[in-house]
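ok so I'm stuck.
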Amino acid sequence: MAEQPSTEITVAWEPEDTDSRNPLNWPAKKKWANVAVISAMSFLAPLVSTMLAPAVQLVMKDFETSSSAFATFCISIFVLGFASGPLLLAPLSELYGRVIVYHITNVLFVCFTILCALSKNESMLLAARFLSGFAGVASMTIGSGTIADMMPKEQRGRAVGVWSLGTILGPMVGPIIGGHVAENQGWRWMFWILSMAIAFITIIAFLVLRETNHSVILERKATALRKSTGNPHYRSPLAPTITPFEHFKHAIIRPTKMLFLCPIVTICCVYVALLYSIMYLLFTTYSFVFKDVYRFATSSAGLVFIAGAVGTLIGVLYVAVISDRNLKHLQASGKTIKPEDRLPLIITLPGSLAFPIGVFIYGWSVEAKLHWIVPQIGTGIMGFGAILVFIAIQTYLMDAFEEYAASAVGASAVLRGIMAALVPLGGLDLYYRLGWGWGNSVLGFLALAFAPVPMLLGAYGHKIRGMERFKVVL
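replied:
not stuck anymore, here's the structure
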């Protein structure tokens, strides 16, 4: 038997721009099928988070409790699960691949949603809600990594827009469905219907999703070559040089490291978390506002989320048209595309200003008891502003930290999950003390204070990223 060569043999794409195994070279239909599935998953998870909102009073009656803390916590504890999941799921996806994480968490998501329907008391419902959030956040955590794996930069804006749509639209559509189901079939039926919907998407995911993590695909190719040839020297250039345990340890620390040591990530995450927590505070109090002030029934209270959903849809269409077109224009003019090009004023200015304006309109129109359509217009403007900011910052983080896109977005998911879980706990007390007008104005002024962030990053982000003192070994 001939002696095996002792030098390392690099396993790469053959060639890189045409190899069909490279997700960047997949046919458009295959790419968009994968985007569609993770977008559907990203829609269902936040939908589950707020679907219970219009039925909270029915749950309290069923469990014979009058606790205002439980009234908001049974909604926000789901988002606390959102905050916990990325710390584990993002590194697992970088070590073992995206698809296996999607499949396992989808199955768990179904199981924990069923457990919500079977809850016998407050504690059981809260525990099941937390676990549902932990499992359901997978697509929202690593979806960015999947998109970065498949889409070249000039095509990511539209893909991120479709994916982000679910994360914003889901919380708004959930109460619309939940209010109707709860009033007619009872709140437990919401979870039975949801579990069936999640199970359906889980089956579709098994059929459609394919692995996109480049390092995992190449390592599998190297492993197959080592096995078929008997030559142990085939190696992927993307394979870690450390043990799997060390790799996992570094990966699990990376989102936290990026959150606290990378100024760009920190400021982006804080801004997104602030807007997200304000939205969830409003989601958890809408049913109280429109029932107490406008005397809406449970099913009608769920319909007040429609305006926000419409505003969000308009925002997605706006970004989808402008974001990628802007990059293609720069590319055609011969300019080098940089991550900050994802933050043009035409997107960041209307987005960062529309959100606080919508909050002010909503709060003071409720305070003045104007016709219910006026606060609805306010929520629509908020939805438009929020989705513009979210998509711009998500794509910016993906382009700025391309290799670790899942960790960067995971860091954002952790902080926004924590804030969205905790901030709403004081929502009703804030309104009881300050009223609907000044209570919402406090939130609006906070959002307004952060409005310059995306514009400043668009102008100076590349300089900040280039500073030696801000460079972190990831």
